[in-house]
Amino acid sequence: MSRRLPALAFGLAATAACASLSHTRAFDLSYPASSGSALDAIAARVRDAREAATPAVAVLVAPRPAQGFTVFGLPSGERLGQVSAALLGRPVIAGDLVLGRTAGAVVAWSLAGAERWRVPDHGYNLVGASQDGGRVAITLGGFGLSRRNGVALVVDAQSGATRFERVEPVAFGVPALVGDDLFLPWNGQNLSVFDVRSGDEAARVHGRTDLIGFARREGNAVWYGARALLRFGATSADMATVPRATFTKEGVPGAPPFMADPYVTLNAGLDARERVRLAWRPDAAATGASFAGASVYSVFHRDVFGVDPTSNEVRWGYVHNADLAGVEVSREGLAAVDENGHFLFVDARTGVLRWRVDLHAAAAQAVVQIPVDFAPTGHVEEGARTPVEGLLQCAGGTDSRLMPAQLFAVRALIDHDGPDATHALVNVVTHRRFPQELRAAAGEAITRRSNGAEAMVEALAAHYDYVADIEAPPVGLLARGIAAHRERSAVPALIAHLQDPATPASDLPPLVSALRELGDPACVRPLVDFIRLNHADTGAAPPVGGGDPIDERMVSDQEPLEAALEQAVTAVAALGTINERRILAEVAVHPRTARVVSEAISRALRGEGVAATTQEAPQVPMTFQAPPSRVAMDAVESSFFPLRQELLECLRGSASRPATVRISFRYDGAGAVSHVMVNPATFQACMGPIAARARLPESGANREIGTYNLSTMH
Amino acid sequence: MIAAGIGWTPAAFAQTTTHAHDAPDAVVPAWWDMNDADALLERMQQAAAGDPATASRNISAALMHGVEPRVAAFGLHALAALARRDGTVAVQHYLEHRRPTLRRHAVAAAVAIGGAVLARAVAARVSDPDPGVRGDAAMALGEMGDRSAIGSLWTAMDRDLQGSLDPEGTALIRGCAHAIARIGDEDAIERLLGYVRRAPFRSLTEAFELALRRNNLSDAVKTRVVSIIGGLATRDARDFLLRAVENARGRTPQWVELARVSAQRIQVPGGEP
């Protein structure tokens, strides 16, 4: 017995020491991570805890120079109370209290605006607050992780009497209070659970690679994290297996973080971090970790995008007529208050406005608290929009701040497959009110669409009209899209633009290229006219009524015009008849024809450079076969083409100029020309030796007679 | 180009017209060297001095073949001088040429050649991107006597009225006013008077001078013109009235006397009474 007593005394002393040790070791970095069972016991208490009803309210912080805030009930918009106070930092709603920092104190007001109590602020900002069971947990600090000093306290919700207080050299995040369990994030990597009654740290979760900045009760679970949404429970002991929901969509306008730094207090009034942000909410009804409404919202000044966090698909876009001063999420959608004091509710699935009420109070900032099942529905005077229409609306507008959102909307439209999305993209391409950057992105996209070509053809129906104030459509971009779709019905419209002097020169190459690729014979004559009217179009012309000649051709226009002529030559060579190809030969020798065009004609008539076109056009399968029994007439034309200019030189200075010179000759299977006879004979001496140099393609002919008619007419 | 229906608008016209591509190629005479611009100009000059029909066909063929800008300008000028319908297709093409100068030459040629086809092609040019072409085209419609164009001329005039800061007005306002004064009825002249304090006055003076010279307008309308312009009491108004009196050359209808009296009443600072 005497041996047992000292042992018992030692055991009691050790227990007391341990208790004391556990108290003093709170916030100690050597505190071990809690086991899964310990965490599970706490999660079980959370599951069993009754959750008080969440009043739906919006706190509107007045724009300067006014001070204070007004509280409105939602969704009715009923004014509940008003407070005039100089706030130092964004106010926080905790159940039926609004907390804000004023000079020297954190004050709690009822929703009716009556001051309920105040506690000293210790010189720190208000970071966060959470109310449960008649008590309110508050964290102070708010200077970021670089200034690690803060206060955590729990006070009576009615009286403000302190129940728990810790002044520590650590930075506190946003707390959550569930029953007697205080979930307290600190120093970025720790989540401690304190027993409010004893003041002891009951459990700890180490973030390791995860940042921990907030704790939040939602339904029967507690959530924490900062860069991802983690569900508190037994698996929190191992960060690798803890249920988490993340958001990985790239290119979100403004590139906001998953959440604003929870260790830094936002300003009272306008704070840019609230205007460009992601909005989400945990969904306790689902198992594991997921977002309410299966949505994450990208908020960018006045634009909102609903994004599926699983597939990263942008479901819809909504553009409001004023900047949004504050938002909150429910399972059914997004609640927001704009700068003009309108409360609105946007549907999570469709992006359509479901509720709108005027609060009649301007707001520099709005803090919104709504239950997770908040879902007002009523008559809103805005026509129902499709998601694509919403995205198209987001892509438009003249607010230059919104460019990132506009680009995001266009990219979202690109990701949508339907013909309505293609139509919307064509709309972006067509209207010059859209910034050039957007139009270029949309223009690139429509070339890769598998549908919606009729929208492009429709867009081509418009022509420049000064009187009607109609801008020329972006023919080049549309032509590329049409060529990609092989939409032959667009040929007449493309031809009309080819003939329209208002079509910018820079649009001509893709336009002609599209005609070439579509391969419709109907385009040959207009292309021939185009070549003829433009091949010699260099130099000055006298103005009407006389005066010095003027050359109004812009240098920047010359290059695309030549490129278009080059394309046209290829098209006519590929699709035209022998007469039309002969016109090319005439154009090639004109002294004013650009060298690139002449060379293109030479190549085309030799059969080079046409391959690309014929390859893309509907083709007869290639077969291997014996050479033809004799050389076809167009092959003779092509073979003599390089010699044509030399032959025409023989006409210079002659007394008469016949319309045609007939050159007869003999050729063999290898294509060698001999026995040349020229009619009229007066040109025999000059033309004979030149013609004898012609080389025809190989054929099955042993010895054959051929004729080449040299046209001297233009 | 084939126009679709009467009651056109420039935009509708652009959408409902096609080139007459099916027309057979005109052939340039074999002895015309298309590769030598100077020689070609000489040939054109020689042709224009000869048989008009042949000249018109040959010059048109050369233009359709494609020539240097200075040759094209001369060719269109020659077609205007010849004033033959054979030149219609070539002029049509050059009305849509990429060079504004050649389009203006083509407008001038279209006025000389005339015809419904060219009238509609010219009407489309009222909406041209080039201001000079727009003004020429508007004025040309009046000279071609195309009364169906009146509605569009009002629209075009209103379009430029808002943005014009030039005291001379734009070429389009001048052209539209001129054309309306030439082909419009008395109601049109009355309506044009409504622009007196809205449009730059100098852009309207030619138009009202033209109206006063027309024999098919009543003296009552001309009196209204003189009365309203006299009411402006500016130096430009006085100059206009004095020119009107001078142009009347001794005739003494009521409006001439009114113009004389109104001009005398206008006191111009630093000027003679």
Structural overview:
- The complex is a heterodimer of chains A (714) and B (273).
- Chain A is an alpha+beta fold and 714 residues long.
- Among the domains of chain A are: 295-362 and 373-485, Thrombin, subunit H (Beta Barrel), CATH 2.40.10.480; 506-538 and 556-616, no CATH class; 633-711, TolA/TonB C-terminal domain (2-Layer Sandwich), CATH 3.30.2420.
- In chain A, a hairpin with a 5-residue loop joins strand 14 (190-195) and strand 15 (201-206).
- Residues 5-24 and 610-626 of chain A have low confidence and may be disordered.
- Chain B has 273 residues and is an all-alpha fold.
- The longest helix of chain B is centred in the first third of the chain and has 14 residues, at 52-65.
- The radius of gyration of chain B is 22 Å and the shape is elongated.
- Classes of the chains: A alpha+beta (714), B mainly alpha (273).
- At the A-B interface, helix 12 of A face helix 1, helix 3, helix 4, helix 6 and helix 9 of B.
Number of domains of chain B: 3
Biggest pleated-sheet summary of chain A: 4 strands, antiparallel
CATH classification, class level of the domain at 295-362 and 373-485 in chain A: Mainly Beta
Determine the structural class of chain A based on helices, strands and strand pairing: alpha+beta
Uncertain parts of chain B: 1-24
Global outline of chain B: elongated
Predict the CATH topology of the domain at 295-362 and 373-485 in chain A: Thrombin, subunit H
- Residue stretches of chain A low in confidence (pLDDT < 50, at least 5 long) are 5-24, 610-626
Question: Helicity level of chain B, as a percent range?
Answer: 55-70%
Rounded to the nearest angstrom, the radius of gyration of chain B is: 22 Å
Shape of chain A: elongated
Helix/strand structural class of chain B = mainly alpha
Q: Helix coverage percent of residues of chain A? A: 25-40%
Average pLDDT reading of chain A: 87
Rg measurement of chain A, Å? 40 Å
Q: Largest inter-chain interface? A: A-B, 51 and 52 residues
Query: What oligomeric state do the depicted chains represent?
Result: heterodimer
